[in-house]
Design brief:
The protein has 339 residues and is an alpha/beta fold. It has 7 helices and 14 strands. It has helices spanning 11-31, 93-101, 109-130, 137-156, 225-236, 288-310, 332-337; strands at 36-41, 47-50, 68-72, 79-83, 160-163, 172-176, 191-193, 208-210, 240-244, 252-255, 260-261, 266-270, 273-280, 315-322. The strands form 5 sheets. A 4-stranded mixed beta sheet has the order 6-1-10-11, covered by helices on one side. Strands 9-12-13-14 form a 4-stranded mixed beta sheet, with helices on both faces. A hairpin with a 4-residue loop joins β10 (252-255) and β11. α2 packs across α3, α2 (93-101) packs parallel to α4 and α3 crosses α4 (137-156). The chain is elongated and about 100 Å long.
Length: 339
Amino acid sequence: NLHKGQSTLLAPEIMAEAEKMYDTLVSEYKKNIIEIPRISITQTETKISFSPFKLDTSGLTFKALEQEIIVMGLKDHSVVMIKARTSGYYDDPVKLIIAQLLDYPEIDYDEISDLLYALATSAFDTIKSNLAKPEEIDQVVFQFKAAIAEKIYTQMMMHHLVTGAEYADPIVLPFVKIEPWNYSALMNSGIKDYREVVNPTGMIPKYVFRGFEKACHFEYKFDSKTEQDLAFILEHDINVIRWLRPAPTQFRIYWDNNSKRYEPDFIVETIDVIYMLETKMATQMDALDVQAKKLAAEKYCMAASKYTSENGGKAWKYGLIAHNLVDRTRSFEFLASAT
């Protein structure tokens, strides 16, 4: 840019100085980043299938209702019941039941049309055989089609199988930048040094903490005492080179049929490994959502390790840490071995 537009007499000197500073600037920049591959962890489409079964027709006992029109007076609110007559045509009753079943999102006509016809026909035959006047079957189905479909659907869901929701092979791209945080300190809370002990601990999420030397950002917030204590350990452990509290948009790791995005608590770089860490209450370690997020994170770490092993980088490892293990007197090596 020095040679664009109006030139400057000092351009040669500035260029010479820039060349001297380049290596230093790049080296300083690399000291404050962790090399994070750009990987999208997504699940394949979920499919629901149904096994053939014999419909339990007990309870399919319906009677034709009187057809009436209710007339209400707008001024005196009087109510008059008028008997109604129909043309007697209600469309194909089996098709009416199937059409009602198709309102349920799990049911795909193209996939299970034979099963739907078998179940709807079984329900139709049972209702008709239970009627004192079999000729009223069309009217009964028309009036109770929603209730009939619900009974069939309830049993279908007892014979369904969910397939898919597996993780697709990810596409791995070169390293991404460290995404920024935008914190705001509350007026009555403000900023604290990360080493300070906060009481009561419920106040910790209200503060912005500073004073870090190994972190990739200047300041962080913590959701709990466990997270603040872990940051203290990372800052003082000689085996930790640098660490990061990832911003919400740092990773593209999806779970729960791609409806939710996983946000790890910490990324920690040591001499030979980069750890993706999550802290949880000891009583929640085996919760379904925690284990689902763990599976997605492990898929990321596997893909990242494969990429970095081919490009001279460090292996990635996921760690789930129980909150009662995190103590300022413990080493990071102890926590890593406990994951």
